[in-house]
Design goal:
alpha+beta, 3 helices, 4-stranded antiparallel sheet, 60s Ribosomal Protein L30, Chain: A, elongated, 2 domains, 32% strand, 5-stranded mixed sheet, Immunoglobulin-like
């Protein structure tokens, strides 16, 4: 009898969890018009709504009046990409993360034609003083954008502004004409260390893009070496609370920018 009661309680608890989970997400109907801010005219184009996992939902706006409708699951923040255009402020996010029930939301999407040397996205792909790629869901976002706009030339600018590495020493191997190997300690300056950090960041991000089958016809990476004094970065203490000149933690900064290239 006790075992039967336990089974009933487990089933009841499971049903409650399913019920609560079902209530936390609902479909939201987005609707409105797509308008070119430069001409004021409605635009018929393709739209992608991309969630935090990089999964896109495709929508077409009407070529006559620019109207669109798209049903999206709530509980997410969506980036919007318009084929051949940029959002009015270069980046558009639609936040449905706090919606718990069905809603119809009217929102017009204002877009503009592409221009050269225009920043369109910025991401944090690296922790300070590190070159391991994080936030990989944004790589899927880049892939969708590139596939959606193959005619647009881009540059990917990778910066060292978020990082700081103190001057140190490094051991250099030297081989003379007779093949004799010697070692020498040399100064390893902050500028040199940050430059090497950028090389590693670019190489790792290039490999990640390749793994996601994001292919560019030319080298799109630009190295933005910035040796910025720590006092200008509002330096934070290290996680351990101990002073460590080789690894000083700085506030979060977006360290990768994507801009349109010259035509």
């Amino acid at each position: 009898m006790k075992n039967m009661i336990k089974i009933i309680l487990i089933i009841f608890a499971t049903l409650c969890i399913v019920e609560i989970s079902a209530q936390t997400k609902a479909n939201v109907l987005l609707q409105g018009k797509v308008i070119d801010i430069t001409s004021g005219k409605p635009i018929g184009t393709s739209l992608y709504f991309i969630n935090s996992k990089g999964k896109p939902a495709l929508c077409l706006s009407n070529s006559l009046d620019g109207s669109y409708q798209q049903s999206l699951p709530s509980g997410e923040i969506y980036y919007v990409i318009a084929k051949g255009y940029l959002p009015e402020n270069n980046e558009l996010k639609i936040d449905l993360s706090t919606i718990m029930k069905y809603e119809e939301i009217n929102t017009n999407i204002f877009i503009k034609p592409f221009q050269s040397n225009l920043e369109i996205f910025r991401f944090k792909f690296f922790e300070p003083n590190d070159s391991v790629v994080i936030n990989k869901q944004f790589i899927q976002f880049i892939k969708t954008f590139v596939n959606f706009n193959p005619e647009i030339k881009l540059n990917i600018i990778v910066s060292s502004y978020d990082s700081w590495l103190e001057n140190s020493k490094r051991r250099i191997e030297k081989i003379d004409k007779k093949g004799k190997v010697t070692y020498k300690n040399e100064n390893y300056t902050t500028k040199e260390r940050l430059s090497d950090l950028l090389d590693s960041r670019i190489n790792n991000l290039r490999n990640e893009l390749k793994d996601y089958q994001v292919v560019f016809k030319r080298d799109v990476f630009i190295k933005n070496l910035q040796v910025v004094p720590l006092s200008k970065k509002q330096m934070k203490k290290s996680i351990s609370g101990k002073s460590n000149k080789a690894e000083i933690y700085t506030p979060d900064f977006d360290n990768v920018r994507i801009v349109t290239a010259n035509k």
